[in-house]
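Module 6 notes. Inverse folding takes a fixed backbone as the condition and produces residue identities as the prediction. Think of it as a translation problem where the source language is geometry and the target language is the twenty amino acids. Below is one complete input and output pair. Work through it position by position during the lab.
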């Protein structure tokens, strides 16, 4: 795994998400919940809009455009109209910094 610094912990208060640019092909959102930090591809699989602009509820992130909700732990869609999962990424917090491994997306397929 090759973790890279994504942002400072202070940049993402609990209950918020921010887009981060790690210089690769994938747009990634860092999300801070009461359960910790998560990283998810910052594009809704249904409407292709930034998930970082959505609403956080527990370990879910809701797309503001059409209301699809995604599990931040797995990337699986929990609410229509989205039916395709989005990748999530390993996250590590070290001191005041959040690190993501953008080279190891976790793709979970619904059974």
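Target side of the pair, the amino acids:
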């Amino acid at each position: 795994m090759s973790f890279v610094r994504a942002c400072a912990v202070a940049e993402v208060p609990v209950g918020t998400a921010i887009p981060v640019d790690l210089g690769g092909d994938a747009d990634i959102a860092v999300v801070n919940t009461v359960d910790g930090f998560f990283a998810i591809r910052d594009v809704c699989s249904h409407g292709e809009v930034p998930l970082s602009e959505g609403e956080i509820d527990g370990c879910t992130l809701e797309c503001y455009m059409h209301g699809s909700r995604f599990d931040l732990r797995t990337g699986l869609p929990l609410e229509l109209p989205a039916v395709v999962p989005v990748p999530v990424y390993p996250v590590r917090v070290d001191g005041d910094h959040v690190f993501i491994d953008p080279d190891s997306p976790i793709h979970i397929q619904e059974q």
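Reference fact for the lab report: The two ends are 27 Å apart (CA to CA).
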